């Protein structure tokens, strides 16, 4: 059953997803309205039952990898009441945080900050709604001035809402290597995105011995290795990676300048080939890299094994996984050594895939609009390029790395990007309203004549 809500009174904006990106946009829209801008009727739909940012990966070792000053708003409006500093003040921890002497809060605290901000927009958000698709509402003359956003609520009912604009901020989707296609929904093989809930069902959580493989060479893989080593003494861990070593993230001051708002302009204004070169050049700031302190901790763990002569964990570098199969109730991985060409089979009780994320969910949600869009390309303000008939602006956040640079999927850009989108949204919705009024006036004049 599909429920329709006020089909004749569309929202000004529906945001799909209410993670940090759309939460930053909610702040920007509210602050613009408070400063004399247009007050938008905005609604944000979130598939999770409540606000939780990476909640399944918040192990004790998880720390934010950027400064707390790069929160949802400070770089755009340092005096905002939605800042991380104001959050600390409101919770009576400002002095205590200063005493820590760090720019990097733990991710658990940052999640609590995001929940604190989200609670202040409770009236504009709906949780437990999975958006299924966005459909055009086609007028008699072929123009599209409204969109239908179809979602499914927790009762399994489809809900349809109309809107004058949409912004998609649904984040990444766990990437599963092809070798593991046969283990879909198998509790023994899971992506790091489900780490805590999946580990709670494993035998090691009851103190039983297990052999676990962690596949990947990035921060998530390193955090999983450390957590398993520290908190599950009956677990043996094999860390399996294609690379020869764990590489440290480059967060030096000059390199960090690529995450500033000015760098977005530089990247966007380059020819496509130059954009690709810039992204390749700085790839090691964000992908398949690990904080240096975690690398040192892992190396120390493996070194102490050599001293003791007890090899609990293994570091299997330069390995590719050729196949994964079920053998005698365990997951058997066929590994090839890229240096020697030799192969070996290893069996595990569980496999954790710290294999990154894909960013294609916007294409699936907006598939009904595909014929109006220019292959999902965006302008500088993150609006999808479209045919003139599509008069409803459609924006995306977190899917434009190829055109806006590496910062597009990171927290660093949120304050600037949300401000740019809020300004563009106000301008373009006002333009659509004027065009609609002019069209109606011409139609009325034609009828009167």
TrEMBL record:
Its cofactor is FAD. It comes from the Bacteria. The keyword Calcium does not apply. The keyword Oxidoreductase applies. Keywords: FAD, Flavoprotein, Monooxygenase, NADP, Oxidoreductase. One of its GO terms (molecular function) is monooxygenase activity. InterPro entries: FAD/NAD-bd_sf, Lys/Orn_oxygenase. Pathway: Siderophore biosynthesis. Belongs to the lysine N(6)-hydroxylase/L-ornithine N(5)-oxygenase family. This is Ornithine monooxygenase. It comes from Pseudomonas versuta. The lineage of its organism: Bacteria, Pseudomonadati, Pseudomonadota, Gammaproteobacteria, Pseudomonadales.
């Amino acid at each position: 059953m599909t429920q329709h809500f006020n089909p004749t009174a569309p929202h000004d904006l529906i945001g799909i997803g209410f993670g940090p990106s759309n939460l930053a946009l909610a702040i920007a829209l509210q602050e613009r309205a408070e400063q004399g801008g247009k007050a938008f009727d905005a609604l944000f739909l979130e598939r999770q039952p409540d606000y939780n940012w990476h909640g399944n990966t918040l192990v004790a070792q998880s720390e934010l990898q950027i400064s707390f000053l790069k929160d949802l708003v400070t770089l755009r409006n340092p005096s905002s009441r939605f800042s991380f500093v104001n959050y600390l003040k409101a919770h009576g921890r400002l002095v205590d945080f200063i005493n820590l002497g760090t720019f990097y809060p733990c991710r658990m605290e940052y999640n609590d900050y995001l929940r604190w901000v989200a609670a202040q927009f409770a009236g504009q958000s709906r949780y437990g709604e999975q958006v299924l698709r966005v459909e055009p509402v086609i007028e008699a003359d072929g123009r599209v001035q409204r969109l239908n956003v179809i979602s499914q609520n927790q009762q399994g009912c489809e809900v349809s809402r109309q809107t004058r604009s949409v912004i998609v901020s649904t984040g990444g989707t766990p990437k599963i290597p092809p070798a593991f296609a046969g283990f879909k929904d198998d509790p023994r093989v899971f992506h790091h995105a489900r780490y805590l809930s999946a580990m709670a069902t494993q035998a090691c959580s009851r103190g039983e011995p297990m052999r676990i493989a962690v596949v990947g060479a990035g921060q998530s893989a390193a955090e999983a290795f450390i957590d398993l080593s520290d908190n599950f003494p009956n677990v043996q861990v094999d860390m399996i990676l294609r690379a020869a070593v764990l590489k440290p993230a480059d967060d030096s001051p000059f390199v960090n300048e690529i995450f500033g708002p000015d760098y977005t302009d530089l990247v966007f204004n380059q020819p496509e080939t130059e954009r690709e070169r810039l992204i390749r050049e700085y790839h090691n700031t964000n992908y398949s890299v690990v904080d240096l302190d975690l690398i040192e901790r892992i190396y120390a763990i493996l070194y102490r094994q050599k001293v003791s002569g007890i090899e609990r964990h293994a570091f299997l570098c330069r390995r590719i996984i050729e196949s994964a199969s079920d053998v005698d109730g365990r997951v058997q991985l066929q590994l090839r050594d890229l240096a020697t060409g030799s192969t070996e089979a290893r069996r595990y009780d569980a496999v954790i895939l710290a294999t990154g994320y894909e960013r294609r969910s916007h294409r699936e949600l907006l598939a009904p609009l595909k014929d109006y869009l220019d292959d999902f390309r965006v302008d500088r303000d993150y609006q999808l390029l479209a045919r003139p008939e599509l008069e409803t602006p459609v924006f995306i956040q977190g899917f434009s790395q190829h055109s806006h640079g590496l910062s597009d999927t990171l927290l660093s850009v949120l304050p600037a990007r949300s401000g740019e989108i809020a300004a563009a949204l106000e301008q373009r919705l006002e333009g659509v309203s004027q065009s609609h009024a002019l069209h109606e006036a011409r139609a009325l004049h034609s009828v009167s004549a």
